[in-house]
Amino acid sequence: MKTQCTVLFQGDSITDGNRGRDYDLNHILGHGYAYIIAAKLGHQFAHLQPAFINRGVSGDRVSDLYARWNEDAISLKPDVLSLLVGVNDAWRQMSGEPSGATDRFERAYRHLLEETREVLPSTRLVLCEPFILKTGATAEKWTEWERLIKRYQDTVRQLAEEFGVVHVPLQDAFDAATEKAEAAYWLWDGVHPTAAGHDLLAERWLEVAGRSGLWD
Predict the structure, then answer these.
(1) Is the full-model pTM beyond 0.90?
(2) Tell me: the pLDDT tens digits for 171-181?
(3) For the chain, where are the E strands, in sequence order?
């Protein structure tokens, strides 16, 4: 990181982290991985005073992100844009909700990336892999959950390769973590991280970002 940098975190409730909707700096980044990453990078690069923005919204699918992309991404002109989404696309289908009648994950994700690349060609993108563990909400229909999320994981990886952007694998990190403690210790309902889960996520994000030269 050679100059002042703006990092934008986008996604669903995992990113939202119950973030504040005002300018209270105690809560504006939420209480999750985005806060942890901002804390560590903000400390490390304090001399450059980087800015961190969290615009995650609980319940969002990829298509919901696209609907608010002008206001919550394009207009902010971030230098780095990190995106973690997918579990709600799966949840709506697994629950049989009308909003999950068609699977728009890949087509909406691609459309979002194409527009971002067109309008913000210099913004560096970080695509985070969606993840789950077998506990809580995912346990009853685990086979179906696993199959659908695996497809989304493949999609995110392929899009990252196609667009030449940073890809953050996360499922393997959570799978490995279950050797230390049970699944619910990391993802309390099989989907949403605990404090330990958010730290694991942030650690992997920082590791991959550093290795990819994101801050060079």
Answers:
(1) yes
(2) 999 999 999 99
(3) 6-11, 51-54, 80-84, 124-128, 166-168
